[in-house]
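My current task is to audit a protein record that another person submitted. I need someone to confirm that the token line plausibly describes how this chain folds. Take the sequence as given and treat only the tokens as open to question. This is what I was given:
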Amino acid sequence: MAVELKKPRKNRPAWHKLTVSGVRPLTEDAVEVTLAVPEELRAAFDFKPGQHLTFQRVEADGAEVRRSYSLASTPRELAEHGTLRLGIRSIPKGNFSGYANRQLLPGDVLEVLPPLGHFWTEIRADRHYGSVVAGSGITPIIAIATAALDAGATVTLLYSNRTEESTMFAAELRELQREHGPRLRLHLVRTRAEGDAPLLTGRLTPERLGEVIEAGLVDPHEVDEWFLCGPYEMVLGVKDVLEEAGAQRIHTELYTV
């Protein structure tokens, strides 16, 4: 008797309709979008800090647009309040990002896939997490940092933006710093304004990161895991510098900032 062996078929993720409960300006070209998740869908939308959601929207001409955006909130917020938050920066010719920034309103309904992505780790209280990030790449990082700090871990964060006004989640980061004190080592880099120190003023290039490390502002040997999020060249260049400095575990995510 012949037996045919078949691999089990994986269930494809299903689209769900979620209602927008809030749209809040973060900068002149970025908004925070809050989604309400009903009780019966909270298990499906449970996630790891660093993961993303994929949205589906049909344009007026019938074209189907799908875009993915990282979650800025934590799993605790989903469990306690039934909400998911994302940061969306408008980019040139960005169909969904432009729609989210200029037209999306509370009460609108979006088609959403459950969270996906590999840019995460199991958060531990005895770990030190480091991150180098630019622009809207802060979205998954603020979720990871918040969860890590809530767990009792230490976080080092270098965050590059043009100015204070263009910095997404600036107020939230300051609040995390006030709440957690020295366990959040926050270094804000300014490319078109004066930073908190001369080394934090100007582009965050691999060479500049090397100078920051040499000056002792950041010690890679204290950090157990790194999360890098931003433009392609920045992420790969920073990764090379950290590896040369002895970093072992580095997670990367490429972003349009």
Remarks:
- The two ends are 60 Å apart (CA to CA).
- Residues 120 and 219 are 22 Å apart (CA to CA).
- Helices lie at 75-81, 95-102, 138-151, 170-180, 206-214, 232-244.
